[in-house]
Write a structure and sequence with these properties.
alpha/beta; Rossmann fold; 2 domains; 8 helices; 4 strands; about 55% helix
Amino acid sequence: MASGRFVAYYRVSTAKQEASGLGLEAQRSAVQAYLNGGNWTLVDEFTEVESGKRSDRPQLAAAMAACRIHGATLVIAKLDRLSRNAAFLLSLRDAGVDFIAADMPNANRLTVGIMACVAEAEREAISARTKAALAAAKERGRKLGGDRGNLPAVCAEGNRASAKARSAKAVARARDLGPIISAIRSSGITSANGIARELNARGIRTARGVAWQAVQVQKLLATY
């Protein structure tokens, strides 16, 4: 039984399908059938008119942004409505959004990762051959790499990478919230306290899942 917040994503391949409702209504019915019962909220719905072969889908990007903003799960009618392209599925897996396919409800980001790993098989085979060649060279007495024993330098590099990842996540979060913040400001609410109250009233939480405070809004606005 479904529970929680959901954002629905539908895709049709042609404008004709969108106009006629062919395919689109069936997808909506499948999503509604999956969500039937339970304690759930459909936060928003997005419809894409695009070929499944393409990965530049603005409506899917908007749907995933809505999922991140509201802490929602992306729900689709069929797994192939996302893509049959493995590289695209990997990028979806790494987008930080959970999803449910009505025709395969047990599928999740882990499942997609496993499916997409088939496409990575050759790359992994190349990597394994490279490592084997390096190991063989090492056995022959060749010095490999740079200063691999400098643990403090390695740790420092890891800390820099971690900080960079956190910064990138914060920027992505600010980008997702940008249109909402702009709409709030356009309505005449410009103070940090006012924006915080409006975000809370809309059911939008911070990245940590707590209510907004003025200081958090100020930090968010500083990223623009």
